[in-house]
């Protein structure tokens, strides 16, 4: 059945970038269970779709997503959230092998910001606002907020964000390393798609290796990370695309990737 709370299309000159638009405008894209399972299903199938080289997730100009659906959670209790694995389907965004870009306008709050931070790259519109307001409703971030803010922006700033619930402007998010670039509101999605197209022009196989290697920097010690990187680098020499890339350079032509 077609999703109701997200829209998925293939965009870009070669239609090789998937654009997922969170589309529950009346609730500022609050991430209810249905929206999250539609997002999760879409990501899983796009990850397997060989015509897609990169994925962009966006919301509306008013809100990327204002967080998990508070009204849906109000009557939850510990036992059922624990045994029912509440939020288990939230991790899909961080499990996708292809590059995922968040194009953020408006509010990226609570779980909305956590989804953005699960993406590989964040582009923001000038009026975007990031934050973890959970503390104001008697809970804490549950999909990575306390961990990913620290890794991106350091402990002191992460503490401020998580303990006050204050919103962070796009410009400050960029200065803190959460966001890589800031654009005028109406250009963010277009720029994110262009970035997706640029990445999709590379070998999908090698892009996947590069993403995996960068992500290891979050999880391993420097020594282990460097070792992992070196081994994957060696492994590129077992691919046709590595041979093609270097041959094409020497022959002054564009490489033809086979993902082999
Ligand atoms: C359910 C929400 C919502 C949310 C907004 N809405 N955010 N519904 N869950 N997270 C609904 C409002 O109830 C309202 O519905 C409509 O969207 C428009 O919102 P308003 O509040 O009227 O808009 P505005 O005055 O512009 O304020 C925008 C806002 C505010 C600052 C973003 O909506 C807000 O503070 N939202 C909650 C933000 C938040 O606390 N997020 C964290 C959630 S907890 P009606 O029907 O009245 O028109 C979380 C936990 C993560 O994310 C844990 C891991 C997943």
Automatic annotation (TrEMBL):
Sequence similarity: Belongs to the enoyl-CoA hydratase/isomerase family.
EC id: 4.2.1.17
GO terms under cellular component: mitochondrion
Keyword Lipid metabolism found: yes
InterPro entries for this protein: ClpP/crotonase-like_dom_sf (IPR029045), Enoyl-CoA_hyd/isom_CS (IPR018376), Enoyl-CoA_hydra/iso (IPR001753), Enoyl-CoA_hydra_C (IPR014748)
Keywords: Fatty acid metabolism, Lipid metabolism, Lyase
A GO BP entry: fatty acid beta-oxidation
Top-level taxon in the UniProt lineage: Eukaryota
Protein name, as recorded: Probable enoyl-CoA hydratase, mitochondrial
Record GO terms (molecular function): enoyl-CoA hydratase activity
């Amino acid at each position: 059945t077609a999703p109701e709370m997200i829209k998925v299309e293939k965009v870009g000159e070669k239609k090789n970038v998937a654009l997922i638009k969170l589309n529950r405008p009346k609730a500022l894209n609050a991430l209810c269970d249905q929206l999250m399972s539609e997002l999760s299903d879409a990501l899983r199938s796009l990850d397997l779709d060989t015509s897609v080289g990169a994925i962009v997730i966006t919301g509306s100009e008013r809100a990327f997503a204002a967080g998990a659906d508070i009204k849906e959670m109000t009557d939850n209790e510990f036992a059922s959230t624990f045994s029912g694995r509440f939020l288990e389907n939230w991790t899909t965004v961080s499990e996708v092998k292809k590059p995922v870009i968040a194009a953020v306008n408006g509010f990226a709050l609570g779980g909305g910001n956590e989804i953005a931070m699960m993406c590989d790259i964040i582009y923001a519109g000038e009026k975007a606002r990031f934050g973890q307001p959970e503390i104001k409703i008697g809970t804490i971030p549950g999909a990575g907020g306390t961990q990913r803010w620290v890794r991106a922006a350091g402990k002191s700033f992460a503490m401020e964000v998580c303990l006050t619930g204050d919103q962070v402007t796009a410009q400050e998010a960029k200065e803190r390393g959460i966001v890589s670039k800031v654009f005028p509101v109406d250009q963010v999605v277009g720029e994110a798609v262009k970035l997706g197209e640029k990445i999709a022009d590379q070998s999908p196989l090698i892009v996947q290796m590069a993403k995996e290697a960068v992500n290891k920097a979050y999880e391993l010690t420097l020594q282990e990370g460097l070792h992992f990187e070196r081994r994957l680098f060696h492994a590129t020499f077992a691919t046709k695309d590595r041979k093609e890339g270097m041959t094409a350079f020497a022959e002054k032509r564009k490489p033809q990737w086979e993902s082999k």
